[in-house]
Amino acid sequence: MRNNPLIPYVLIMAFGIGLIFFMSLDGAGSKDEAHEAGEGGGETTDVAEIDAAAIVQKSCVGCHGGDLTGGMGPALNTGLDAEHVKEVVMNGQGAMPAVIQDEAEAQAVADYIAGLE
Fold this sequence. Notes:
With 117 residues, the protein is mainly α. The protein contains five helices and no strands.
């Protein structure tokens, strides 16, 4: 190793490639398990289990203000219709982008926002 400074780098590269190879074998074995989970054996989310307040704090307060009374975006504590809120958070409207793709999360957030006064 003293004569050729590239040998340590080649050894590290060979170790990295071997590590990636063996990790991919484990992933290939898990493919069938993941496929079965997608066919109904996986986890389902119930609207009651979703923490809508945490999602609102993460996604909404930046534009609608910390207490949701408005900021750059309009106020959300005015008793909005839940179906309209769900439609807007999933598809966006005007300057607001779609922020939630999961329908159960969107319903939980819509119910939470519709309940604000």
